Every structure is written in structure tokens, then in C-alpha cells.
Amino acid sequence: MAAPRLALSVFVLMLAVITLSEGMRGTGPKKCCFRFNESEVPRDRVAGYIKTSQRCSNPAILLKTKAGRQLCVRPSAPWVKTLITYLDSKAIPGETSNL
């Protein structure tokens, strides 16, 4: 009688540990950049941008063009900083993302 209870207790404990460890792992970043577009993109072709996750190995800005393409650019590039300032000035107050 004690053996089935012990087996059930061990099973429930192992299930709890697995569930907890999977929940702590979480999901990884949706998009990271490993190759970068170095040439300047005209601002009239850019629809919006997002910053990649801090969990990515390379900090990056992901530009979305009006043609629907996504381009990885370096946030430290002077033209990217200017472009972000321009896009932020066009953003509607209260919006969290302009994509």
C-alpha cells in the first residue's frame, strides 16, 4: 500500500520540478541580428523600428521598410541615431511602438 503512494508522490514531485524549471527558462528573443546593413537607408523608406532584445548577443535596431522588409542596423551609427530621432518625433503620443 505504501509503494503506490510513494510512487505517486515521487511522480508528482518530479512533474512539479519539471514544470517549474521549464517556466523559469522562458522563451528566447524573437529576433536577433548577426549581419548588419551598413549603408544608410533613406528615411522616407522606413515605416518604423524596434530594438532587439537585450538577450541578443549584438545590440541592434530592426528597421521595417514601407516595402515590408526588415533590416538590421547598428544603433551606434550616427545616421541610425538621426533616423530614430526623426521616427520618434513622428510617433503618436501614447503609442509604445511605431511598427
UniProtKB/TrEMBL annotation:
Transmembrane segments: none annotated. Its main location: secreted. It comes from the Eukaryota. Keywords: Cytokine, Secreted, Signal. The keyword Cell inner membrane does not apply. This is C-C chemokine ligand 4. GO terms for biological process: immune response.
